[in-house]
Amino acid sequence: MLPSVEVYILRMVDLIDQDRGEESLNLLKSLPLAEAEKVSERLSIWARLVLEKEADNSEERKTQMCITKTLVEVLKFLLSIQKENPLKEDECKANLKNFETLASLQEDFDIFISVKDYGNHSLMSQLLEEHIKAYESIRSMAKSRKVQATNSKDDSKTKNRSTESRLYRLALLLQSTEQELGAKLALRSLDAGKIEEALKICRDFYEHHCNEQTGKLLFLACQKLCHMLEADVPMITPKGLNFPAVINEMACQAATICSPDLLLDSLELCKYTLAAKEIYGQCQIENYGFIAKAASFGADKDPYEEWTYDDFFSEDGIVLDPQMALPVAYETISSLVPLADNKMYPLDSASVANSPFIKGHNLLLPVKTPICALLQNLMECSQCELALRLIVCLFGSCLQHCVSNNMDMRLGEKLHEGKMLADAKSFLIAMKQKSTSVIVAAVLALLHKVFNCRLIDHNLALGYCTILPKEDMFENLWKVINNTRQNYNKILAVALVGAQLASHYGEAGERQKFEELITDAEWGIQLGKLGISFQTVFRQPSIRKKELIRTLVQNLNVDTDLILKYCRTFILDSDAALQLCIETLLLQSANANQVEGDDTVKQPHSTLLAKSVKIIPLLKSTKDLVISLSGILHKLDPYDYETIENVLKVIQRADENSTSIQLNQALSLLKHLESYKRTSPPVDLEHQYILEHVISLSPAAQTRLPFHLIFFRTTQCFWSIISAELTEESFPTLLLISKLMKVSLDTLYMSAARHVFEKKLKPKVFELTKAGCSSVINKETTKTVQTIQSYLLSIVNPEWAVAIAHKIAQELPTGPDQIQALKFCLYLAEKWLTNTTTKDESHEKAEVLLKKLRMQYQRSATETVLITHKLSTAEHLKLTGKPANLIVLLYEHSSINQRIQNPTSRDYPDIHAAAKEIAEINNLDMNKIWDILLEKWLCPNIPTDEKTQSFGDVQEDEELRRVIYLLQPRTMDYSSRMLFAITTSATSPIGVNQLTFAQRSRALKCLIYLADADTVESLFKKPIEKVKYFLQCFIYLAEFETLNIPYTYESFHRSPKEGMIKGLWKNHSHEPTAARLVTELSLEYKVYDPQLWSGLLQKLLGFNMIHYLRKVLIAITGVPSLWQILNFSQAWRSVILAPFLAASCPPSPKQLEACCECFVVLLKCPVLADLDIIGIARQYAQLDLTAFALGCLLLIPQTEKREQQIQGFLSSCNAETVLQQVDEHMNTGEVAGFASQIRCLILDNIINEKQYERFLKTKYFPLLKLQVMNTHRVKELVDYLANKNCMDDAAALIVEYQKRCGNPILADRSSCDILKMFLSGPE
């Protein structure tokens, strides 16, 4: 019988084989601890044996997975019961860890290995390598987007191997660290040229696993990259990556965290990768894929950098070619830090500098070629600073390699072969010679570059100099100085370095030379900043330095302290220099003005004066200065006020008592002259002065007055200059100058008045007079006139004042301005007369002058009034000396009649205003003149003729029109009462004559014309109709009075009118007055006796009273009984044909008006049948008045004859001319209705004749369209428009016609649709 342990083992194995691991575990836990421990240990051994068998299919793999998982739980249970036995507990833990690892490999990575295989490190490394390859393959496929899902058996081994994290987990399971896997991945990426992946791995490890292993990884990656760059291996680098900087950064990171064994190699790598980085910075990179050095400020700046280096020297060299420089640089690095061929042991080193001699292998030989090539390239490209730094490092590494392996010569001979030592020694000697030549050449070149910088690094230059031999050093420094002309900064820097070196080497002579040079260079720099050239006296003896004082003084920014310092520095006489300084300052601007093309910056005169005054206290004696400046003053440009003022002020400040010049007066004169701007060119006297003193005429002479000629010369010279300058604007200043110079002010005022008038007012007077202006007094000239008057009023001598004022007035044109000037002359003369007494000699002279001026004033003022009111005819101007007669003549002006007949016109002269002004000027009584004129024209003693007979109204009587105008200025109350008094009185209230009926009727006519009805009724106490009848009776009585027939108002009123008329006709029919009187009485009292009227018409024709006859015929048209009179038709014919007798073609405006009136009379003629209408039409046609001719034809009584004549006329006339004459002459008045008839006749003829073409583009086409619509003949015009392609016009006509007919068309229809609808419809 088997032991219970064996049974349990078999049972548990069976359960595990059936994938019932949980039941087997429960069984194990139910056993006693001792048995459970034995069973667990036996199961562990069994599982090891089973797992050693390779699983060939999925079932076997599944069984192994179940065994492994179950064993993990079994071992965990076993570990829990092994607390008291530490040895077994450790053994159990180890077994548990192995089985857990195997379970993870089986479940997560589908890897089935035995416990024995798991302990084989080479097998684990092989498995990891396979999975790394699979990982890289899957990543490549993913990037190329060609990944294909597959479930084949061959692919099962690579299950879930695509992620990097799983790969790292697998590495841990396969007993490799993350750093080891990272190193493999990084190096494999580098081998594949995938730089970005490798850099990412290194960066991640440095950030998250900063330890010695990561340091080794970074070192190896950096070393690998250097060798790849040396071999120019193809690689993929990120765009814009500064590769050398990244490599250097990796080397530095490696040096910070690597192990002590790797530290020396890392430092060497850091040193040379930094050099490669700097070489790369000097290369021409097309995409500029490098990081420029950022400027640091304040707290961000590296203190070591700030304290150690000057930041203003940057070497300028030729840009390196990266294709040439970088491979050689990395070849040098690879030769100095080669890859390790064998396993590295503690304290081993890969770098040449720290490596021991190797038998049969010279480590220095690979270094020689790249070093020489690199240095040659750098020197050829003038990268001296980089070459110097690199040669020192390279030679140091080589020297360290040789010296560290041969510390003792004897020992070295024993340890190493003789050939190896000889080779190392010869290499070092050659390297030393090469290094020395490169260093000297680089230092010399760098010295030149340092000294040529804008800011020179003295310490750096001093350091470079100490490298050179003493003799060569001084020689080179003086060569630099001699080859440098005016670059004082460079000279100063070189001199400072030379002085320090001379002091260091104890060379006193050299030091003194350099210190003198330093002094000159410092002054060159200081004066150069002020714009002063120091070249002429640079490195010259001190005595030559005096030549520069004048230049120093002329500079804007040089002060006295600097000049004194300059004198002290170069041991010059300060007192003489200061006096020269003052003179130079004062004459600086004067000299600059005289030198053409002088570009020297001029200092303000105030600055020059301030500098000069500031220097005066520094002088020991001012006497020589005052004497010198007094002489200089007379030689100065007379227009250079600023220099003159400065000289005067300096003399005043130095010693005022040492000169005879009136300084205060001179300075005051200068103040006035400075404020004044000259208006006239220099006079001959000035040119003469310029020639005498041999100076050029300054441009300021055009704007300034000469100081010397005004201040130092005579009064005559003064007036020669001042007279030409007198203007309204300049006078105040010139007055102050004259007062200051104590000359005659009357002369100044007279000259000023005359000059201002001639130059400013007189041209304006003629300009405005030429432009038609009556007066020149406006806003612009008022001030000038007032200025001239103020000058004249300021003259002390009254005779001079009147004389100059009268002369100015005489030169003014006749008009209001001359009147005002003469008034001012009168004022001055009256003022002169008032200020004298009868005893004075000038009193009589003043009286005579005043009388002459007053007479001239009255004549000129009267003439001006006539000119102002446009009444300056020759007839009127002759009467300017007789003002009363002139006023009477003015009221007889023709414009008075015109203004009564046509009051709307505005071009009539104002006779009242002119007469009133003339009366005021000549001291006349205007009321007396008016009364004389009223009596003359209202109550004339001369009988009236036909033109002024009593039957006419005010409009027809010229004298009554003058009376009406004469009464307009009077009040209505005065005028109406005066006229009423004349009407009702026997004698004239304005004269001594007896009043006739004619005079009284004239007064009543004026009263009714002027006054309104209420005023007239209030005066007569009768209704207005009775007053008018009263006037009518007075008119008839006046006519009887003319015929010497004694009638009174009462006798006329009582007498029978028909008998009176016939008696009058019987006795006085031979007189035109009687004929008109009889006609008026017959019409007034309706006496229509045919025999009487036959005689009247005959007499009116005989007396040629055509115009009056026309009125009479129109008046009796309403009396049919008179139509039968024999000469009735003859009278009509004569009246109608009268205008044609004097008319010509083309008719004048007056003749045209008469012809138009004739047509109106023709329309009123009651006996058209007795007239030759066709003949009258021909008369109109001959005058080219076709519209009136057609109108005459329309008046033919016979229908057939009328139609015939009209048709013949229409066929020959110009229809457009007829329409135009209708518009111009027949659209208003009594013929307006007849005009429409003529227009319709013409338009109908156009439609009948289809003459649309002639009127299509004329202004009469709208009338034509209206006519066709009124006559319903639209279709004809529509057809014409359609044929002419005027579709829109045709459609618009149809729309308008249909609207008038009450059939509006919808607005949305097109022109074609409207046309088709209309043409296709019924008529």
UniProtKB/TrEMBL annotation:
All copies of domain RZZ complex subunit KNTC1/ROD C-terminal, residue ranges: 695-1242
GO terms for cellular component: cytoplasm; kinetochore microtubule; RZZ complex
Source domain of life: Eukaryota
Residues annotated as signal peptide: none
One GO molecular-function entry: small GTPase binding
Any one Gene Ontology BP term: mitotic sister chromatid segregation
Record-annotated KNTC1 third ARM-repeats domain positions: 443-649
PANTHER family documented for this protein: KINETOCHORE-ASSOCIATED PROTEIN 1
Protein name: Kinetochore associated 1
Gene name linked to the record: KNTC1
